[in-house]
Predict the 3D structure of the following.
Amino acid sequence: MGGPPQAEVQVHRIGNEGEPLVIIDHFSGQVDRLRAMGAAAQYDEGGAAYPGVRAPADASYLDIRRELMMKLVQDVFGVRQSIGCQVSAFSLVTVAEAELSPVQRIPHYDAPDPGVIAVMHYLDGPESGGTAFYRHKATGFEAITPEREDAYEQAVAREMSEKGEPLAHYHYGDSDRYEMIAAVEARPDRMALYRGRLLHSGIIPDASKLSSDPSQGRLTVNMFLRGS
């Protein structure tokens, strides 16, 4: 049994702030196995901010590319001492657009901590969308750092009060509040890595096709690494 195929790595600097975005194609060579694991998993609600359900995922398959991952987190994200996986989950976007809460209709950030690296492992093709990254027009912020968090949250609350709730749909592209600065197209076995402080949103091409069935729905593996 051979190893995984040759990985193809792209490193981008996006937006005005030059935050890193890493794309790795042919990451694992195990898409069918991962999809089977996702199909057998037990899902629960993903939390107030996530529009879907999640199930624990074994992150040990990252060891397939351990040397590559360590090099990237050190050279690109500046991790010098240690790196660990805090969260690993199979994720399915399931919420109908009409049922989205106001905060689920706009881009979000995962954590202001610069040591948090988000990992998105796509298991489906372009028809499932991808991930887009944004600049908040009112503040100019692309990344929500600890120093910016209060100002950003206040600006969003002010927009909700003055402009009303955003339209009930999954955010994609430019709007009166956000400008899209980059996007990653989903491909089977493509992985994207970026700091969790970046404003981003999943790309949902056709919300009518969302499903809670892992064999039919938008199945991804989402992880959060914490480095120092």
User: Anything to note?
Assistant: The chain has one domain: 8-227. The chain is about 15% helix and 30% strand.
